[in-house]
Design brief:
Layout lengths: L7 H15 L22 E9 L2 E2 L1 H9 L7 E9 L13 H6 L3 H10 L4 E10 L10 H12 L1
Parallel strand pairs: 1-3, 3-4
Antiparallel strand pairs: 1-2
């Protein structure tokens, strides 16, 4: 389930779906606005993908995760599409890890919402977006292959 606004998360989710289907799994992709949180389909594994806005998951994903009904100890994976860190325009210096972390809190926030529901995280990944509307970082497909192998 994704909350893609500019299509980057949807592209990542569709690619993951293809990888999982190729491994013999059944996989469906849904935008969080297409499914009511109380009607989330039963699954062996859930994957949630959200872009970051000011360091947090986009509002549609936060609202969905707060209301979603999952089985106890449901297994899940997380994907965050994040703006690629860029050098400061004045100094040319890259942001420090502490500064970058401030704008990359999507995964811990989503994990916290799902942990409250008794769900169990299997894997997580950050996929960077070069500009707000894309494209995705070079090598994102390889990152997704690694993520898919972690999911099982």
């Amino acid at each position: 389930m994704h909350a893609s606004k500019y299509g980057n998360g949807e592209k990542v989710a569709a690619y993951l779906q293809g990888l999982l289907v190729a491994k013999g799994h059944q996989a469906n992709v849904h935008h969080v606005k297409q499914i009511k949180p109380k009607d989330a389909p039963a699954a062996d594994l859930y994957v949630f993908c959200s872009p970051a806005r000011i360091g947090k998951p986009i509002g549609a994903m936060r609202r969905f995760l707060k209301k979603v009904t999952l089985p106890q100890e449901a297994k899940y994976g997380l994907i965050a599409t994040l703006g690629q860190p860029k050098p400061d325009k004045k100094t040319g210096e890259m942001p420090s890890p502490e500064q970058t972390e401030k704008y990359q809190r999507s995964l811990p926030i989503m994990e916290g919402l799902l942990t409250e529901k008794g769900a169990v995280k299997i894997a997580e990944i950050k996929v960077f977006v070069v500009d707000i509307k894309g494209p995705l970082e070079e090598g994102w497909e390889k990152k997704m292959m690694t993520f898919a192998s972690q999911l099982g």
